[in-house]
Amino acid sequence: MSGEDSKFCVVLGAQWGDEGKGKLVDILAQGVQLCARFNGGANAGHTLLVDGKKYAFHLLPCGMINKACKNLIGNGVVVHIPTLMKELDALKEFDPRAIERVFISTRAHILFDSHQITDGILEAEQGSNSIGTTKRGIGPCYSSKAIRNGCRFGDLLHFDEFERKLRELTAWSQKRFGEPREKDLPAQLQLRKALREYNTQYAFDPEHGQKGGVKNLEEEIARYRRYAEILRPQIVDSVTLIHQDIQLGCKVLVEGANAALLDIDFGTYPFVTSSNTTIGSVCTGLGVPPKSIDTVIGVVKAYTTRVGHGPFPTELQNEAQNLDDYLETYIGPSVTVERKGHQAGPYNLSPGQQVKVGEMLQEVGYEYGTTTGRRRRCGWLDIALVKYSAMVNGFDSINITKLDVLTGLKQIRIAIAYRNRQMTEVRLPGGYFPSHLDDLKEVVCEYETMEGWSEDISKCTSWNRLPANAKKYVLRIQELLNIPVSWVGVGPDRMSMLKVQVPIVRPDGSMPQQPSPGEQSWGLSYEPFQNFGASSDATAPELGGGALSSGLGEFQALLEEVVMPAEAALSRVFQASSGLRETMVKNRE
């Protein structure tokens, strides 16, 4: 379950991204022969702290920190080559031959500066309806892929053909996005001018032209001619490469970019990324069959964060830090967090202080985006959301990260279920996550309150050294999800990831039983409002004091008398049909 003995392990984000996937990938990459990325582009970001030195990757797989590991950028990734080269240059001191360990699929699409300009134009056109993209050109590049006018790395190996395609793509983009529009703002006019002239230096830095880019299309073509020469040995047929490694018995590690709730199909659309971020995309983004995958680990932050716009059921504090927030007593050690450029100066915590929990999570957790630098929105851990993510991805185990950030909160809340604002008496089905934003806005959370801990856990080196209440918090998450927790992160360093091997046990001491295939309830659960554990917060204000309607008993009786027996009957039908099929097969034999 930990991934260490896996032949093909996948590590995926289970929330809205920024869960700290890179640290676990870095740990597991020390024992594998191939580390691969399958989706996204430079809109993703991993920050690793290894031996006191920080490494920030946006495109490179985290296996680059293992000098014995090959790294593959799969066909599902969109690659901005100037960013890739910059990351490789930053690794030269660590490994002068780092580029020799990176292989790029011939089928991976190239993301150009013009895609980034187009991204900025489109985002500005949305006005108040903007979705808060990173403006890294991801969406426009995937659009080029979908409408089949994009350029792939294989084209660099046939440069005359590449040049023709790039000129045609540029002319297409200029025709559709380059001309001024009546309601354009100055920033949009500037970007359109830059696109018409293909002057990306001007687009990125109008005053000084010092933030990369080129002055015209001819410079761009010359630049990519150099890239083609440098990268030619590293551009490979990735399907052949990964399957050869699998057949040789090599251990493969796959890292996801972004996370489940940013998936273009399963996320909070339209506030999502432009690629599939969930388990199915591993197959399409690398060219491997599902049966190759033997372990899937979901990375879950000990609380919830997201960047950009969109509903957020457990949100406590936003990017502007202007929400009312939730107050709690701080019982931990004194802490000072430096905040460069913040008008309020350093962030200070002292025992006995009343703290705004969301703000504390932002500042103590350094919740600022690796890619954008934007402050992340923060809230309590959302179990309903993670259950949905687990349904989609089939997690074998969970890695909980940043547990140390919760240190000092006298009490900690967990959102254990969703209810609809118009009918709070009955929980929504377990694992259900609304597909429409209007429905998600109507969700209210049922919270459970747990006791916090005062001890600094950032120096803990084993699970057994954690305070009792920290362990209880982790094991409660494990119990609620019915998925084992295999790792817990208590700090930024590689050594701060603790292995966990504790079986799932219910409060009454029983072990949950996994239903057999014929006993599945088809993912539905009907649960009345009730306490789960002695500390369940049944009187949360957002549930209207927890008062039950007089019709609840009748509703529950209906479920017990009609719906649940119907499900049981359906299960028996499937069991009977399964038995009939087996008998027919035997008779044929």
How would you summarize what this structure contains?
With 589 residues, this protein is an alpha/beta fold. 32% of the residues lie in helices and 18% in strands.
Task: Walk me through the structure.
This protein is of the alpha/beta class and 589 residues long. Helix content is 32%, strand content 18%. It has a ten-stranded mixed β-sheet with strand order 9-7-5-2-10-1-11-20-24-25, with helices on both faces. The longest helix is centred in the C-terminal third of the chain and has 37 residues, at 552-588.
Derived from helix and strand composition plus strand pairing, the structural class reads alpha/beta
Tell me, rounded to a whole number, the average pLDDT: 86
Strand content: 15-25%
Strand order of the largest sheet: 9-7-5-2-10-1-11-20-24-25
Radius of gyration: 26 Å
Cα separation of the termini: 39 Å
- Helix percent reads 25-40%
Tally the beta strands.
Answer: 26
* Poorly predicted tracts of residues: 515-559, 561-589
Largest sheet: 10 strands, mixed
Shape: globular
Tally of separate helices: 16
